[in-house]
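Write out this protein's structure.
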Amino acid sequence: MRNYYEILGVSKSATEDEIKKAFRKLAHKYHPDKKGGDEAKFKEVSEAYSVLSDKKKRAEYDTYGRTFAGGGPQGGFNGFDFSNFQGFGGQGVEFDLGDIFGDFFGGGQRRAPRGRDVSIDIELTFKEAIFGADRRVLIAKTGVCDTCSGTGAETGSKMVACTTCNGKGEVRETRNSFFGSVSTSRTCLKCRGRGEIPEAPCPTCRGEGVFKKEEEIHIVVPAGVEDGEMIRMPKRGEAIAGGQTGDLYVKLHVRPDPNFVREGHNLVSNISIKVTDALLGGEYRIRTIDGEETITVPAGAAHGDTVRVHGRGVPRGRGSRGDLLVRLSIEFPKKLSRSARDLIEKLRKEGL
């Protein structure tokens, strides 16, 4: 891990002004357009400054040794005043900022716009969470135009080169700055980076290729999901002209069941048994997630013991399932008849 303070040659307690002055000096020294400049060093001091000049990022860096704002330095130089930063360019030199900062600030390639993600909530019964379910929901969102299939062109109309960007999809602008004559590029707003526009716009979406509509989404909930889980459906979110469609996130809410509690891939239920059945054993009809079944309570069962019913739990793949654990609760009578009391007294005498 690089030490940003060492890169700028300042102490950890350096003030904002000290950090700014250190960066100004080093950036002037290493600028790649200067004779003897060093592009790698210039990017390194730029990265250090982008973190240490931002209070939030600096606090994160001091605490964790890294920043968490998008996985790296963002937002350029965070308010650094370049009006006092003289001596760059000025010799009629023209260069593209993307060539210098591209690898550091975002990889040097323009990122395609992306539609917004959509989040919805659905409720499941306990049984649906165990075995899976299908849902069809109606969502109002921006989607691809069905009439023109997203081209923005009227049926039968062709696409022609955008006159604003001459079919390049981007517009280059040159302006004077502290670097001298700086050339930058931006996505063409007219064609949204496609380089072409419809000769006659689609009447449904007015040439946008997308419009607000209601769309039915088929959601397949897999078996064995738990309360609070999220299903991500790529490219089922909002569409955007000239860009990628966002994702749909489905949050699952599972209603509790009065008869079962989930413990991993096992299910747990409770039954009450008689004292005599605890002593001598017996059979009981119980409810499973699949329906009713009969279980055998072994003789000598204790309060809190469990009877395992194999394969009646939560699916865990490859056709296998967890088990149902039936916890036994011995039900003691509150009142005894005289004959029952006499029998129990006899048992006491036998040491039971």
